[in-house]
Structures are given as C-alpha cells and as structure tokens.
Amino acid sequence: MKWFWIAGAIYALSASVQAQPLPAQVQKRVDAIFDAMVDHWIVQMDRWWHDGQHEHLINMTYFTIRFDPRNVSLYENAGWLLWSSNRDDEAVAMYERGLRNNPDAYDMYYELGQYYYLRKRDYARAKEYLEQAVKFPCEWFVWNTLGHVYARLGEKEKAIETWQELLRRFPMMPIDQMEAVRKNIRDTMTRDATPASGENKQQ
C-alpha cells in the first residue's frame, strides 16, 4: 500500500500550496502523478468489484473522487452498492455529490431518476431528475426510462411522445429494444399503462 501513503503525502503538499499557483512545469508533473495514481486506484477498485470486496471499493471511491470528481462511473458504482446494501441515505448523498460535481451531463440526473423509479417507486421524484437528464446528450435508455415513468404516473400522452422521440433520435438502437418501445406505444395507446417488455432494461 506504499502508493496510498505517497498519494496522501502529495495531496497534503498540494493542498498546502493551493493559495499559490505552481509553475506550469511543476503543475504538469503533479497532474501527471495524480492521473497515474487515479488510474492505479481504478484498477485496484475493479479487482475489489470482481472479488466482492465492496466495502473496500466504497471507501476508496470516497478517496478517489477527491482527485477525479468528473469520473461519473465512480458515483454510479458506489451509489448502486450502497442502496443495494440498504444504505439509501449514503447512496443518495453519493449521487447528489456526483451531481454537484457534474451538473452539465446527464449521468447523475439519470442515476437519481433511476434510483427513485426502481428503488423507491417514487415516480414523481424520478420524473424531476429524468426530465433534466434528457436535456443533455444522453443514451436511448434515458428516454426509455422517462417514458415508463410517465406511464406509471398515468401521463399517457407524454409517455407516447417520449417513446416516439426516442425512436426518432436513436434509429440505430438495438432492434429488440426498438420493437419493445413500439410495443410500449401500442399498449399505452390501447389501454392503461402496465409494465411492458424492456421496462427494466437500463445500460
């Protein structure tokens, strides 16, 4: 764990001189060291993930995001591990921290929306976050989840419009999912919205 203590020393040194900008060449070297260490930590975290050492992974995530706050996968993975361990308050705090550090991307809005949709079945809260998520460039499954949220809330027209927009925006999406979306539209048009095929398909 020598690298861990070296990182701590470098972080402390960096913090002590933050008030005085470093020379460009020195800053470049410090950034390179930080980047290399973050890469090393992520490799180690991946090993812990596959070994089932989730508590180590969560603890290292809190440390790593101090150096790499824009890495949304850190918040996504740790958040899922936390709420799947019934540590919901910590999970929400993790997602919200990710959102504060990444307010200009869809990822954390989606994670919070999905959390309230799947975990809490709080469709109104899920709607708030998912509507924000689709304002940014995002993947097809974000629109798909928003469509299901509208359907759960009884907002049939919005659900249909959202799925139609999904098909328009993502003509190259997986064929099976495209057919599932079309079925969702047909079902919603003809009867009260019910859970449809592909509903829980996320990433």
Q: Which helices and strands appear, and what pairs or packs with what?
A:
Layout: H1 2-16, H2 24-51, H3 54-64, H4 72-84, H5 88-101, H6 107-119, H7 123-133, H8 140-152, H9 156-169, H10 175-190
What general form does the structure show? elongated
Element string (H = helix, E = strand)? HHHHHHHHHH
The main pleated sheet reads as: none
Strand content: under 5%
Work out the helix count. Answer: 10
Helix content: over 70%
Radius of gyration: 21 Å
Report how far apart the termini are.
Answer: 34 Å
Mean pLDDT across all amino acids: 81
Q: What is the number of strand segments?
A: 0
Oligomer: single chain
Keywords:
203 residues; mainly alpha; 10 helices; elongated; disordered N terminus
Report on the architecture of this protein.
The protein has 203 residues and is an all-alpha fold. Helices cover 73% and strands 0% of the residues. The longest helix is centred in the N-terminal third of the chain and has 28 residues, at 24-51. It starts with a helix and ends in a 13-residue tail after the last helix. 27% of the residues are buried. Mean pLDDT is 81; it is low at 1-18.
